[in-house]
TrEMBL record:
Listed GO biological process terms: positive regulation of apoptotic process
Domain PH per the UniProt entry, residue ranges: 8-117
Sections of the chain in a coiled coil: none
Protein name: PHLA1 protein
Naturally occurring in which organism (per UniProt): Uria aalge
SMART domains cross-referenced by the UniProt entry: PH
Main location: cytoplasm
The entry's keywords: Cytoplasm
Any Gene Ontology CC annotation: nucleus
Cellular compartments annotated: Cytoplasm
GO molecular function, one term: phosphatidylinositol phosphate binding
């Protein structure tokens, strides 16, 4: 996504609930763009390791991309304590649970970008249909 020239709209850390039996909350570095959400493991460099040569970059397999074309909704589940819990529902029905501090507003930012993406796609579809109709009318 970022390789295609999309600029980052918001960056930070979100906690994602794991799919495993224990369903632990794991921190993910998140980059929100105009096309979707990228999830990567957080960069961990303890102070004692900073003098050592840098570690190789995370393999591409560790990066998870949630593209807005595959996203159905963002549901705000609940505000509890200092956290907002929300669920991203994908088109195929998969649900991904997240949480963040209330003041970070990740759920609102993701929802806004998704709506803007869907609106752009709808406008492009209408333009394409009109162009086809005009072309058919000219022949």
């Amino acid at each position: 996504m970022l390789e295609s020239g999309c600029k980052a709209v918001k960056e930070g850390v979100l906690e994602k609930r794991s799919d495993g039996l224990l369903q632990l909350w794991k921190k993910k570095r998140c980059i929100l763009t105009e096309e979707g959400l990228l999830l990567t493991p957080p960069k961990q460099q303890p102070p004692q390791q900073q003098q050592q040569p840098p570690l190789p970059a995370e393999p591409a397999a560790k990066i998870k991309e949630l593209h807005f074309s595959n996203m159905k909704t963002v549901d705000c589940v609940e505000r509890k304590g200092k956290y907002v819990y929300f669920t991203v529902v994908m088109a195929e029905g998969k649900e991904i649970d997240f949480r963040c501090a209330q003041e970070q507003g990740w759920n609102a930012a993701i929802t806004l970008q998704m709506v803007q993406y869907k609106n752009r796609q709808a406008i492009l579809a209408v333009r394409s249909t009109r162009q086809k109709q005009q072309h058919l009318g000219q022949t």
